[in-house]
Amino acid sequence: MAEFLNDWGLSLATFLPIIGAAVMLLIPKENEQLHKLIALATSVAVAVFGVLLLIQFIDNDDYGALNFVVDKSWIDVIDSRYIMGVDGISLPLMLLTMLIVPLCVIYSWNHFPEPRNPKAFLMLILILETGMIGTFAAQDLILFFVFFEVVLLPMYFMIGVWGGENRRYAAIKFFLFTLFGSALMLVSFLALYFLADPTMVAGELTRTFDMRLLPDAAAGIAKSSQVWVFGGMFLGFGIKVPMFPFHTWLPDAHTEAPTVGSVILAAVLLKLGTYGFVRIAIPILPEAAAEWAPFIGLLAVIGIIYGALGCLAQRDLKRLVAFSSVAHMGFVMLGIATLTDFGINAAVFGMVAHGLITGMLFFLAGSVKERYHTLDMTRLGGLLVQAPRMGWILGFCVMASLGLPGLAGFWGEFPAILASYNPAEVLAEETFRSYMVVAAVGTVLAAGYLLWMFQKTAFGNPKDEFANDPNVKDATFSEYLAWVPLLILILLLGVYPQLLFGATDPAVVNSLSECLESATSEACFDAAAGQ
Amino acid sequence: MGALSAVFGAEAVGEATAASGWFLENAWLIWLFPAVSFLLILLFGKRFPKGGSEIGIFAVGASFVFGVATAIQWISEVEGGGSKGAEGEYALGAGALSLAAEGESSGGVSAVSRSITWLTNGAESIGAGILIDGLAVMMIFVVTLVSLLVHVYSTDYVAGDRRYTHFFAFLSLFTASMLFFVTASTTLQMLVGWELVGVCSFALIGHWWEEKPNSNAALKAFFTNRVGDMGLIIGVSILFFAAGTFDVIGVNEAALNGTMTHTVTLAAALCLTAAVMSKSGQFFLHTWLPDAMAGPTPVSALIHAATMVVAGIFMIARLYGVFFEGYSIGGSSLNLLALIGGVTTLVGASLAFVQNDIKKVLAYSTISQLGYMVLALGVGAWTAALFHLFTHAFFKACLFLGSGSVSHAVHSFDMKKDMGGLRAHMPHTYRTFMLGTLALAGLPIFSGFWSKDEILVGTGGWGFFGGTDANGSYTIMLVMGLVTAALTGAYMTRVVYLTFFGEYRGHGTPHESGPRITAPLWILGSLAVVAGFINFPPGFQLVPESWREKFFQWVEPVGVSYFPSIKHATPSWSLAIVSVIVALAGIAAAAYYYFVRVRAVSPMATELPNGPTRRWVLARAGHSVLVNKYYLDWLYTRVIVGFVKGPLAKGTNWVNQHVIDRVVNEVGTRSVQAGNVVYHKVDQLVVDGVVNATGKISDASGEELRRMQTGKVQQYAAIMFIAATILAGIFIIVI
Amino acid sequence: MYLNTMLLLAAVLFCIGVYGVLARRNGVLVLMSIELILNAVNINLVAFGAFHATVVGQIFALFVITVAAAEVGIGLAIVLLLYRNRRSINLDQVDLMRG
Question: What is the pTM of this model?
Answer without folding.
Answer: 0.82
